[in-house]
Amino acid sequence: MLMHNLVIAWKSLKRNRILSSLIVTGIALGIALSTTFATIRHSFAKDPIPEKSNVLYNVRLDSWDPLKPYPARVPGEPPTQITYRDAMEIMKSSIPLRQSAMYKTNLYVHPDPKVGKPFKEQIRACFADFFPMFNVPFKYGSGWDKKGDVGPEAVVVLNEEMNEKLFGGANSVGKTVRIEDKDFRVVGVLGPWFPSIKFYDLTQNQLQPPEKLFIPFNHLVPMNLRTGGNSDGWGPSPNLPGIAGLLGSETCWLQMWVELPKKSDLSAYQDFLKAYAMEQKKIGRFPRPVNNRVSSVKEWMDLAGVVPAQANALVVVSLLFLAVCALNLVGLLLGKFLARAAEIGVRRALGASRLDIFLQHVVECELIGVLGGVLGISLSLLTLAYMNNWMKTLVNRTDFFKLDAEMVVMAVGLSLAAGLVAGLYPAWRTCKLAPAIHLKVQ
Amino acid sequence: MQFGPILRAMARNKVRFGLIALEIALTLAIVTNCVNMIRVAKADMSQPSGFDDDNILTVRSQPFTSDFREEGYLDNAVRSDMEVMRHTPGVKAVTNSRFLPWQGGGSSSEVRIAGSKTEMLRTQVYGADGGTLDSLRAPIIEGRNFTQAEAESEATRLRELLNAARPMGEDGKPKEKITQDIIISKAFAKLITKDGNALNVRLEDNDGDQYRVVGVIGRFYNPYGWPIHEFVMFFPGLSRSYEGGMQYLLRVEPGRMDSVKAAIEKNLLAANAGRNLTLRPLSEIKTNQLAQPALMVRMLTVVIFLLLFVTCLGIVGLTAFSVAERTRQIGTRRALGALKSDILQYFLLENWIVTSIGLTVGVVLTYALNIALVTKLNGTKLDPGLVVMGVVLLWAAGLTATYFPALRGVRVAPAIATRNV
Amino acid sequence: MLSMRAIKKVYRTDLIETHALHDFDIDVKTGEFVAVMGRSGSGKTTFLNIAGLLDTFDGGTYHLDGEDVSRLSDAQMSRIRNLKIGFIFQSFNLIPDLDVFDNVDVPLRYRRLPAKERKERVERAVELVGLSARMHHLPSQLSGGQQQRVAIARVLGGDPRLILADEPTGNLDTMMSREVMDLLERINDKGTTIVMVTHTPECASRASRQIHLLDGKVVDTDALMGAEAERVNPTLAAALN
Fold first, then answer.
1. Closest CB to B19 among A320, A327, A394
2. Which of A211, A327, A424, B386 has the most beta carbons within 10 angstroms of its beta carbon?
3. Which residues of A touch C83 (CB under 8 A)?
4. CA angle B318, B320, B325 (to 5 degrees)
5. E strand segments, B24-172
6. What is the pLDDT of residues B72-110, one digit of tens each?
7. pTM metric for this prediction
């Protein structure tokens, strides 16, 4: 019967092609817009590291100015990054399974002169735990070990693209890369690693792909490195010049992440941070009320405002748009179905029950919904391609807006729901038509 | 008029007319709020910077040979770069400054009137040399500009000061205070002094260092992460280091951007090959900075047009059914002496009533949606004028969308009435 | 086959009540071919709608094929229409999107018959009306007489006990009318009860009995007598049915 109803529905749509294409176009536009905007929002909002996001936490401490709170995006939040002296102290905790403070720095990479000129590159300086903590895949070799952190050893991890550029894609483990005036030994080459957003450092361009080179954190002092990211300070300037001033200052410039596999670890770690803050108060630091944050990936993304407010507004607008399309559909279907009263009278006379008639029309509405959905999803693929093209000029990524399985399911669900919601009332009205009235005159 | 009969006929089709009314109500709510968002985005985009955006070329020089680590070499290299650029045909003015307009950020600091206990006020802060304001084409309106000699001597003084530890006083601030001359924007002048008369006013920062206002420029707008887009404080100095590299801003003769760009790149590399150069017209940086609101405007415009299309489609459909259903009735009316214009009027009036009901509900919905957007999603409040415009627009759209299908009703022949009973 | 007692049907609007049928009695025996005649507004169509369970009524009792159908649900009425009753309309009422085969197939689908049996029934019925060659034509490609024959095939496919025909020849010329009437007679000969509303005396004359309606009542003496007889001896009447 379902197949038969589908055939009837298809024939019914073919009968009035213009009206049918208008109806389908209407719903397709609604689906296209809501799918596009929902996908845009989803591309920002989706979990960048789903397999581990439940055990990873961003750590922040409120070491800010006693006179006024940190001017955070969300009032009451501590600074988005932490100071060097705090990072070094809390890194001593043994509660986290893995942990790393980190920063990015812009340095000159000097390739073999045969390969090309020196070029400035963003480099992430982090601890050995960075790679296992964030499930970073390796193609060749691995990250450095904890000894590499302490030395610090002159070791570097390249991503695939950088390995391609410097070594033509060969296994470069053991080879040397010159960064500024120092030679670094390659210990690992990453496999493909493209988190949807650069979740581990949301302080600057969040959509940029991860850095292409990674070196141990502690090259900071010997190489006199400076952060390539934001640094927020307050109060008097440090009284020492250069890096020494920075290390002892209240300037917040490091990102700090910990991996806490158990919920009990989380509370233990929070207790540890609280104790640390209280301890610091004794020496006159942490002048503000204790305001530590151990935020999950999702929480941190929300606080950092990863999803632009406009993306949310557009989703709201597009859902309302879909509602208008559905209302429109109700009106058009009502007219279409009621215009068919005579045929329904015949079917009723031939023994169709109300349910038969109702189902026949619901199937027709669903067919419209599905056709609209397919057309709408195709349209949204076009708009997303346009969006990706636009992104390319901004952050050099062409894959940011992706219609993934979740979004396709949502789009199909929306189409079916739109068809059903729009169809229920007309189908109900139609099946309530008295069978006798419309048989006599045609 | 035939208000009564029309209303009674509509009351018998409550659902169908109700649907259209609701559709119109939602359309008004969405269109008005979208136009509002467009206006906000457009306002952001059309802010004049106060600079000659179209004719400024930005040049970044990033040295990689270690000679540049030595200050003397660095200074000479910058001096020779400036000479090279100044003598390139088509270049009107050159500056070495870290200030890069339209990049969506920069550096900032906090100051207040010296000796006062008022709250610290945040402002953008950049170094400037003798040619900075000329390169931006942001003229002094009060006081004086910096000279190149002033910029160079101040740069040397600061470098010496910051290369050693500053002795600290009891209060944890440097014992010895520095005083510098600064140029600020008129907007910042108005923020720090009630009357905007800031010339010779002294400011102090968190270290107690002091700044004396010697010049004021007019318009300054550089979008920033904090709401300090129009506030700036320039101090005399040079912006150069091995790590940070050098940045130059060049003002070129209108229409010569491309040729100047090519010439500069060639000449600078010929002067010193130990660095990488990035040359970008400021207009390109500005376009990138404004890409997001521009895209937003485009998307919202598409939404508005599609929405009006869909709603008109609904009205056309409703009227068409209405006409088809009443073919016989129309014939009868015509047979009884109704003019074509009476029939047209009937349908237009019917639509006008539905639209008006929808718009009444719509005004309420519009404000409800706006309140939701303002409180939840950082929206901006509606201008009542926009709502009025939306209402007029939808009235017009409704009548237009009714007119054409109603014409079919008008063409119904009176003879229909007698056919095939 | 069909027995109505004191049937009442009132159409109400805001202002007036119209008594379409009142105190309406009628009996049709199994195998009869009854022609119902009467002027416009005499209640013919109302009678046919009620008889075909297309419309409800406000009073009285109605037995169809021995079963009281006065208080059935909509679904039950649909089922009876599908199984026991076949309709033939003045305007054929074929479904314009469907070809001959599919049109005849419609009621069989509502009967949820398996595909194979439906196919057999459709082919047999279409053959009976002589349109096998037109099996996949659309209604618009057929003449009026052919369309009405398809409508009759649609009835035959369902193998109903009762056929209700509403002016079956009203839209046809004389030649075609004759063909259709011949077909109906042949169906009746095989034992199917037919009740036909008609204006034309020529058609009415083909029926085995004629009933006249006037102002919602039966004025035909035969029918009245039949009704009397049943009232006198219901057992006998039932036996006859």
1. A327
2. A327
3. 351
4. 95
5. 56-63, 91-96, 108-113, 121-128, 140-143
6. 898 899 999 999 999 999 999 999 998 999 988 888 888
7. 0.80
